[in-house]
Amino acid sequence: MSTGFDRRTPNRGDERRAALLAALDGLLLAGEGLASITIADVARRAGVTRSAFYFYFPNLPMAVAALVEPLYDDASSATELLLDAQTPPSQRITSMITVLFDSIDRHGYAFRAALEARAADPDLRTVWEEGRDDYARQVARMITAERRAGNAPAGADARALASMLLELNDRAVERYALGSTRPRKHQVAALASIWLRSVYGTDPTPSSRSTR
């Protein structure tokens, strides 16, 4: 998924851009909080100048956003699973939520930095919200299609329902990334149950659902 956080068209062969992102990743992985990292730190670790940093990114929050593009790719994959009409609702909803939690397991430290960056940069907040709005439109179309096919009962406005369910996902994933003490499998099962009851009016899945 291309998120537009880079000033230039992405070029996988561009070693300087890759070095900057690797440097930022290394600082975050070492436990440095975003608030304590400067552009000079990133440039120095990457072996480039500050001006080189600005050639690729307008500021540090947008560099963080570029770093977490794999999470956006995971979110896109999760949405594709959810929209697969050939799969039973319980299976695709649980798979969608599981992919989101798996993504945090792999990239949690970067996601936490992205939360800091979002709070600090209004442009990033706008891009973040636009991305979620796009997912909400896709989910709303799925809900509408399921209702028309007789697979789901009539209910709240599909777009509003989709937005609220995605908001719920966001809050749950953020709490998980920040160290929620609730067992992961219970969180996934609870979210799946809420989605199923909200969209389909029932949760036919046994409580023993395996979510790791």
From TrEMBL:
Ranges of residues in domain HTH tetR-type: 15-75
Protein keywords: DNA-binding
InterPro entries: EthR_C (IPR049397), Homeodomain-like_sf (IPR009057), HTH-type_TetR-like_transc_reg (IPR050109), HTH_TetR (IPR001647), Tet_transcr_reg_TetR-rel_C_sf (IPR036271)
A Pfam short name: EthR_C
Any one GO molecular-function label of the UniProt entry: transcription cis-regulatory region binding
Listed PROSITE patterns: HTH_TETR_2
Residues within the DNA-binding region(s): 38-57
Name of the protein: AcrR family transcriptional regulator
Source species: Nocardioides daedukensis
